[in-house]
Amino acid sequence: MLDWNDLRYVLVIARAQSVAEAASLLGVHQSTVFRRLNEVEKELGVRLFERLPTGYAATAAGEDICQVAERMEEDIAAVDRRISGQDLRPSGVLRVTTTDSLLFKLLSPCLAIFCTTYPEIELEVLVSNQFFNMTKRDADVAIRPSSNPPETLVGRRVSSVATAIYGSPGYLAASADLDDLSKHSWIGPDESLSHLASARWLKQSFPRIRIQYRSNTLMGMLEAAKQNLGLVALQCFIADPDPDLYRVRSPLPELATELWLLTHEDLRNVVRVRVFIDFVASWLKSYTDLLEGRTRRLIAEHE
Prior knowledge:
Blueprint: H1 4-16, H2 19-26, H3 30-44, E1 49-52, E2 55-58, H4 60-84, E3 92-98, H5 100-117, E4 121-127, E5 141-145, E6 153-161, E7 163-167, H6 169-174, E8 186-189, H7 197-205, E9 211-215, H8 218-226, E10 232-235, H9 236-239, E11 246-247, E12 257-264, H10 271-285, H11 288-291, H12 299-302
Parallel strand pairs: 3-4, 3-5, 8-9
Antiparallel strand pairs: 1-2, 5-12, 6-12, 7-10, 7-11
């Protein structure tokens, strides 16, 4: 009979569609993945993948095996969450995912103090602009802006998050009148950030402008704006503290979102999760004015 490790190899190959990528995800040598797959196919007496030039494609038998493996993966994750929920001590590994902008602009000092306050908790911080799959314990807590957090997660709303338009003094001194923003150069997000409200707003408000510079992170867009490359729509907590940028519009209500601390329902009473959420929520509350865009005036008000 196949065990979970056999099924896990098949599932990862199916998701990666590549033995090399599967080996990287599993943390083993590529030859190990080849050998395990050949052994599983030999034991079952059926081919699980078609080896195509474009990658590995699951056969009908392979898809059946993957469905079984996915159910087992979900059951194992559920058991793991329930067992973790019985932990009564503020100790152990805590995996936290957040965005680069939140980490670099707000959270780093907070997390350092948390580690000092709770030395028995091992903090792992995963920077990503996408939601991790918290059902599978890719992370225990997520800290990120969201207008619609996943229904599978529970948590705490910290504040609203405002977004405004910014430009550098050098760019603004040499550019067109700010009354018509369509005449300006713009810095925008790439397709990986197309889910952001600011990305949709820019596309809908100025469909004909040419965006010469794009980045897959808001921090990258911030740095580009400081190099006089154009206007940029950024969350106020990112751009307001920066002396090399001016805010040229009040925060746009249609771009407002919310900052959440989220976890899986099965983990909400785990002590290390609970103390972390309480600690970070308290820290972020002191930055409410910054998050909600009330700490800086417009460029016209400086002149």
